[in-house]
Design brief:
By secondary structure, this protein is an alpha+beta fold. The chain folds into two domains: about 5-60 and about 110-155, no CATH class; about 70-110, no CATH class. The protein contains five helices and ten strands, in the order αββαββαββαβαβββ. The strands form four sheets. Strands 7-3-10 form a three-stranded antiparallel beta sheet, with no helix packed on it. Strands 4-5-6 form a three-stranded antiparallel beta sheet. The two termini are about 20 Å apart.
């Protein structure tokens, strides 16, 4: 965590055990897969208001292609073989990126579709600063997965919004 982000953050348990630069301030509990503590924006930061609704429950839907896939060209196969890419997803004009390469393992991945409910401070952190986190926890899989545009979770409020966007 960079100094600017750290200056406006605190932990969910109120303890900062010398892990100020760690992705999470508490170790992972091997029984649950969750950290014993997480970073959140401070109460002062959260009290400034939210740019998204405060939502507490999300679903693990995985990351699936949104647009049609095409086979790789011979040149792309040679260039990207080391990464295991097998398909390319061309994004339409107006998107932030031109597209994405997909590996077979990603295309075959089956998310659990389970829902997870987070604590209020974490939910308010997402509402105040949606890109604060890079990963979040799936209570059913017992592991952390990416959030954001290419993330694996959607809010279950019916919006279809990806967690972290």
């Amino acid at each position: 965590m960079d100094d600017e982000k750290r200056a406006k953050s605190e932990t969910t348990n109120g303890v900062t055990p010398g892990l100020e630069t760690a992705g999470a301030p508490g170790p992972i509990n091997p029984k649950t897969g969750q950290h014993t503590s997480y970073w959140v924006l401070s109460e002062e930061e959260r009290s400034k208001g939210f740019i998204r609704p405060v939502r507490t429950t999300y679903q693990h839907v995985g990351n699936r292609p949104k647009y049609p896939l095409r086979d790789l060209t011979d040149e792309e196969k040679a260039r990207y073989n080391q990464f295991g890419y097998v398909k390319y997803e061309q994004y339409p004009d107006g998107e932030d990126m031109a597209g994405r390469y997909w590996a077979q393992k990603d295309l075959d991945a089956k998310p659990c579709n389970g829902t997870t409910t987070m604590g209020r401070a974490i939910a308010e952190t997402y509402a105040r600063e949606p890109t604060y986190y890079g990963r979040t926890f799936c209570a059913h899989c017992g592991s952390h997965f990416p959030v954001g545009r290419g993330g694996e979770f959607i809010w279950i409020d019916g919006s279809g919004d990806k967690v972290g966007t």
